[in-house]
From TrEMBL:
The lineage of its organism: Eukaryota, Metazoa, Chordata, Craniata, Vertebrata. Catalyzes the stereoselective decarboxylation of 2-oxo-4-hydroxy-4-carboxy-5-ureidoimidazoline (OHCU) to (S)-allantoin. Pfam families: OHCU_decarbox. It is an enzyme of class 4 (lyase). Residues 7-163 form the Oxo-4-hydroxy-4-carboxy-5-ureidoimidazoline decarboxylase domain. This is 2-oxo-4-hydroxy-4-carboxy-5-ureidoimidazoline decarboxylase. Belongs to the OHCU decarboxylase family. It catalyses: 5-hydroxy-2-oxo-4-ureido-2,5-dihydro-1H-imidazole-5-carboxylate + H(+) = (S)-allantoin + CO2. GO terms for biological process: allantoin metabolic process; purine nucleobase metabolic process; urate catabolic process.
């Protein structure tokens, strides 16, 4: 889909198509619709980033809390969003050994207890070993550092999801 077509979409269709570029946060997409017309894909991505950056810290943490754990309950029960399922599978999260799963679950729990929001990383830009290493290292950061780091990862996830929707001719939800 090209950007000219995006600019003609009524908000219902815009939210329907782009509503999950930030995981389970269609309010971001719904808000950004008012910023049309977008001159380019990058402009749309920048509008989303600016909206997120303008949120209070509690809002940023809210966005992080909408993300499912990596290799967590939603993956085990098949209730991940389609996007998240593909991302987690691509990074091998659906094929962990039982020892790796236990380590992931334990570190995810530690991370959440320490910060009050889940560990978020752009799974498509990493792999199993990288995710485990980052999870273990990032557990030691300060809360504000982790909040900012998690939000930068959300933006990377968003960019790749947007690219998938805009830069291919793949059928979308319309
Ligand atoms: N917790 C977390 O990072 N979740 C995710 N990362 C990603 O790339 N897709 C997700 O669902």
């Amino acid at each position: 889909m090209d950007i000219a077509t995006v600019n003609t979409l009524p908000y219902e269709d815009f939210v329907n198509i782009f509503g999950n570029v930030v995981e389970k946060c269609p309010i971001v997409t719904a808000a950004v619709w008012s910023r049309r017309p977008f001159v380019s894909f990058t402009d749309l991505e920048a509008a989303i980033s600016e909206f997120i950056d303008a949120l209070p810290e509690s809002g940023k943490e809210g966005i992080l809390r909408c993300h499912p754990d990596l290799a967590g309950r939603d993956l085990q029960s098949g209730t991940l969003t389609r996007e998240s399922q593909q991302e987690q599978a691509g990074a091998g999260m659906d094929a962990l050994s039982s020892a790796e799963t236990s380590r992931m679950v334990r570190l995810n729990r530690e991370y959440k207890e320490r910060f009050g929001f889940p560990f978020v990383i752009c799974a498509r830009m990493s792999d199993k070993a990288g995710i485990l290493r980052q999870l273990s290292e990032r557990c030691r950061n300060e809360r504000a550092v982790e909040r900012a780091h998690g939000i930068e990862e959300v933006k990377k996830i968003c960019r790749l999801r947007l690219q998938g929707l805009l830069l291919t001719d793949a059928p979308n939800k319309l």
